[in-house]
Amino acid sequence: MAETKSPSGLSKVLNAAWVRPFLFLVVIVAAWDLAIRLFHIPAYQIPSPGDVVAVLWSDWPELLRQSWPTTYATICGFLLSALFGIPVAMLIAGSKTVESYVYPLLVFSQSVPKIAIAPLFVVWFGFGIIPKVISAFLLGFFPVVVSAVQGFKSVDPDMVDLARAMQGSRFKVFCAVNLPHAMPAIFSGLKVSVTLAVVGAVVGEFVGSNSGIGYVMQRSIGTFDLPTMFAALVILALLGVILFWIVDRIERLVIPWHVSQRDDISFAS
C-alpha cells in the first residue's frame, strides 16, 4: 500500500485560515497601487497605499486614542442588542400573538435610515456617548432578533415533547433543548450584529461628536485629507475584524460541538 504523503510545512502555512485572506488583501493593495500608477489618479481623489501607511505610522497614537470612544460605543451597543434581542426573540418564537404584533414593527423599523433619526438622539441626549450607543444598538438589534427567532423555531417539536414527557419543567426543557439548539443561529446573528454595531457607532459620531473614528473621518473629509480618512477606514476594518473574532472565539467555547462539525464540513469541501 502506498504511503500517504504528509503535507509540507509550506502547504500547512498556505492552508491556514488567516493566510488566504491576508494574501488576497496583499493582491488588492498591489492592484490599488498599480491602478493609481497606470491611470495617474491624483492624490486628492484616491491616496496611494504608501500614503495611507505613512499616516498610520505617524499618527498611530492619535488614531488609537480616537478609536477608544468608537470601540466603547460599539461594545455597549452590541451588548445591549444581545441583552434585549435574545429575550425579544424568545417571546416572538414562543407566542404567535407577540409575533403578530411585534415582528412586523421590527421589519418596518429597518426601513427607516438610521442616519436620518440619529440627529434626534443628539437633540434628546446631547453630544455624549449615549447617542452613539443607541445608534450601535439599533443597527445590531435586528440581526440578533431575526437569527434567534429562526433558531428557536427550528427546534424539533418531538424533542420538546419528549423532554416534557420526562416530567421536565418548562424552564428546564428550554435550557436543555430549545436554547442549545438555537445557539448556532444566535451566534450567527451576534456576528452580524457586532459588525453592524461598528457602523452604528460611526453613524452616531458623524451626526454629533468631537471624538472617535467617525469624527476623524468627518474632519478629514472636510479638509480633503484622504490619507487620514483611508487610515481611519483601516482602523474601523480592524476593529470589526477583531470584534468578530472575539465573538467567534466565544462561540467555540460555548458550543464547541457545532464549531467542530462546521470546521469538518468546511475542511471536507
TrEMBL record:
Key words, A-Z: Cell membrane, Membrane, Transmembrane, Transmembrane helix, Transport
A GO biological-process term: transmembrane transport
Residue stretches making up the ABC transmembrane type-1 domain: 67-247
InterPro entries assigned: MetI-like, MetI-like_sf
Highest taxon of source: Bacteria
Subcellular location: Cell membrane
Matching Gene3D superfamilies: MetI-like (1.10.3720.10)
GO cellular component entries: plasma membrane
Keyword field contains Cytoplasm: no
Tagged with keyword Cell membrane: yes
Pfam family, one: BPD_transp_1
Predominant place of localization: membrane
Alphabetized CDD domains for the sequence: TM_PBP2
PROSITE patterns membership: ABC_TM1
Membrane topology type: Multi-pass membrane protein
TM region(s), chain numbering: 21-39, 72-93, 105-127, 133-152, 196-217, 229-247
Family affiliation: Belongs to the binding-protein-dependent transport system permease family.
Name of the protein described by the UniProt record: ABC transporter permease
Organism the protein comes from: Bradyrhizobium uaiense
